């Protein structure tokens, strides 16, 4: 699945080379190898080495690099500069557009950058970050955001930062943002939190283990019932001569076309 439409983003420690192949063969739409929070400072170079060795063997993935301004950030870019298997980078702890621009420029403008917004400051500057040249898609670091703000891990409490990222993405002309991960393996919890994300307009979600992507992919795809509604509405609209009948037709028409587009993309048939 192309990264602009990817639903499940499997985040895996860059030290877990035993899982790299399994991650690439999993149901995840995209894979991210984490050289930041999942790796102790004393093992950063080791982690980069494992990533580069896997890339040299034909592996492909995104890499979460360290925050702008740290020595580890500069070392990450130096190591990954010409790696053939690198799909792009996720920039940790993004709080300003300058951090995105600096990263893009260090890569010579040749790499896609996903700003990972993880703080109150980053959320409030989300529009500027989304408009930064080279920003590809926003992602939400929900765990660090809660730590920064003291926000509870509840749908209502987290609605504001998620909505900010959705609005910023729309203003910046980016694909819908990627939500933070769900901690736990319960399918019911994954579906519940996935539904909350979809309702707010997010179009992807970080995953923490190999079992989560299949559930997330289903949650972030249109349901067969939604596809059936879209097909029926479009058929009825065409049968009426494709003439706008009232004020609700245009928004419903746009929704039907969007559902159809995503259904075709993800292979969902009407019920």
UniProtKB/TrEMBL annotation:
Protein's name in the database: CoA ester lyase
Keyword Lyase: yes
Stretches assigned to the HpcH/HpaI aldolase/citrate lyase domain: 8-208
GO molecular function: lyase activity
PANTHER family the record matches: CITRATE LYASE SUBUNIT BETA (PTHR32308:SF10), LYASE BETA SUBUNIT, PUTATIVE (AFU_ORTHOLOGUE AFUA_4G13030)-RELATED (PTHR32308)
Record InterPro entries: Aldolase/citrate-lyase_domain (IPR005000), Citrate_lyase_beta/mcl1/mcl2 (IPR011206), Pyrv/PenolPyrv_kinase-like_dom (IPR015813), Pyrv_kinase-like_dom_sf (IPR040442)
Keyword Lyase annotated: yes
Pfam families: HpcH_HpaI
Keywords of this entry: Lyase, Magnesium, Metal-binding
Species: Isoptericola luteus
């Amino acid at each position: 699945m192309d990264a602009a439409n990817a639903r499940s983003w499997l985040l895996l420690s860059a030290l877990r080379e035993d899982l790299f192949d399994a991650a690439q063969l999993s149901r995840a739409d995209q894979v991210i190898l984490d050289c930041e929070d999942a790796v102790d400072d004393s093992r950063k170079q080791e982690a980069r080495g494992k990533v580069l060795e896997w890339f040299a063997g034909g592996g492909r993935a995104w890499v979460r690099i360290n925050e702008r301004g740290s020595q580890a950030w500069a070392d990450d870019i130096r190591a990954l500069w010409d790696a053939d298997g690198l799909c792009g980078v996720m920039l940790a702890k993004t709080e300003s557009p300058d951090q995105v621009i600096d990263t893009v420029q260090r890569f010579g403008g040749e790499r896609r950058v996903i700003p990972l917004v993880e703080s109150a400051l980053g959320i409030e500057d989300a529009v500027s970050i989304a408009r930064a040249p080279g920003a590809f898609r926003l992602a939400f670091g929900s765990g660090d955001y809660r730590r920064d703000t003291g926000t509870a891990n509840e749908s209502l409490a987290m609605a504001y930062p998620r909505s900010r990222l959705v609005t910023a993405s729309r203003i910046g002309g980016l694909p819908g943002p990627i939500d933070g991960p769900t901690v736990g393996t319960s399918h019911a919890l994954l579906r519940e939190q996935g539904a909350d994300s979809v309702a707010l307009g997010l179009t992807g979600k970080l995953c923490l283990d190999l079992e989560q992507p299949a559930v997330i992919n289903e949650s972030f795809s249109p349901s067969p019932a939604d596809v059936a509604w879209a097909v029926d509405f479009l058929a009825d609209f065409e049968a009426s001569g494709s003439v706008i009948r009232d004020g609700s037709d245009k928004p419903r028409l746009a929704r039907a076309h969007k559902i159809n587009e995503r259904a075709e993309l993800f292979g969902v048939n009407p019920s």
